[in-house]
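User: Design a sequence. Structure:
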């Protein structure tokens, strides 16, 4: 009899422990959704696709209080389990006048995200692009009407080739887009750490100082690289799995250079670690970039390597 009672107590305690472990806090997520499509969005919903409470029902406002018209944005709040804040979520939306819903062929993460830009192509394939918030001085961005501006985020996979191999992503904002936001976007779209500062430039261009904890100076991808690649398309993620440190470094040097030139139309001067001359040991065909000479792009250095 005592043994039976003991087993009952153990079973009861186990059930209580399991219940306690599952009692995670629900947190409210507040995100600005910007409609960069030509359609009026009247519903949004999200479902966790991996990890804790994987089979939870769809979260979010299935029907928005007010539709998000093209070029407009709306602040939306909904609650999710705290354990899933940094998880991967499927997303879908509905648009006014269309009975069926549309699913995003990818996943989104809500951790530290303040803005999600919704775009679509001519075939009505919708994309959810999340961005962190930032405040800083703005650059020269292209006004697309109504105060909405865009900035090109250039991913350069040329690796010294005379024929540029580029992929362009777009950041949207109202007003102006600061230079720091461009770097945050590169962080996101490349799943790398573009850790830099922008000191005063005596040469009239843009001075970029690479920090010691940047992926460029470390010569390696971040520990969470694969996790961050999971938020991108499969095609882009595969392109960002670099074969060696040289390809990683030329990609970072070229991508930041082209992004800054595309948005600020000026020379770019690289330094490292507080203004020192940028030296990347082992980088071929050159590994030293004088601080007083603007960066020229990998194609230039490869073409003049033997001269």
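Assistant: Done.
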């Amino acid at each position: 009899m005592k043994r039976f009672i003991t087993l009952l107590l153990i079973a009861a305690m186990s059930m209580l422990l399991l219940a306690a472990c599952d009692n995670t806090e629900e947190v409210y997520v507040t995100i600005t959704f910007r409609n960069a499509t030509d359609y009026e969005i009247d519903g949004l919903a999200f479902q966790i696709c991996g990890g804790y409470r994987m089979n939870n029902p769809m979260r979010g406002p299935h029907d928005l209080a007010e539709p998000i018209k093209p070029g407009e944005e709306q602040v939306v709040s909904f609650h999710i389990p705290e354990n899933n804040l940094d998880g991967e979520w499927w997303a879908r939306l509905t648009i006014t006048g269309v009975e069926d819903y549309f699913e995003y062929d990818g996943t989104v993460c809500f951790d530290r995200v303040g803005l999600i830009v919704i775009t679509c192509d001519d075939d009505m394939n919708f994309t959810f692009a999340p961005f962190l918030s930032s405040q800083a001085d703005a650059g020269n961005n292209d006004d697309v009407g109504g105060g909405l501006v865009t900035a090109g985020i250039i991913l350069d996979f040329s690796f010294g080739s005379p024929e540029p191999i580029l992929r362009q992503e777009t950041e949207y904002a109202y007003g102006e887009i600061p230079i720091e936001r461009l770097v945050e976007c590169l962080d996101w779209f490349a799943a790398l750490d573009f850790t830099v500062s922008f000191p005063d430039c005596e040469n009239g261009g843009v001075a970029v100082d690479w920090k010691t904890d940047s992926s460029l100076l470390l010569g390696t991808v971040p520990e969470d690289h694969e996790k961050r690649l999971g938020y991108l398309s499969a095609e882009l993620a595969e392109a960002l799995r670099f074969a060696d440190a040289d390809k990683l470094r030329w990609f970072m040097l070229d991508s930041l250079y082209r992004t800054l030139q595309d948005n600020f139309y000026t020379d770019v001067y690289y330094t490292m670690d507080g203004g020192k001359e940028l030296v990347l040991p082992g980088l071929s065909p050159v590994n030293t970039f004088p601080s007083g000479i603007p960066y020229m792009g990998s194609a230039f250095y490869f073409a003049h390597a033997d001269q």
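Confidence is low (pLDDT under 50) at residues 2-23, 133-140. The helical segments are 2-22, 179-190, 215-218, 225-229, 234-239, 245-264, 298-303.
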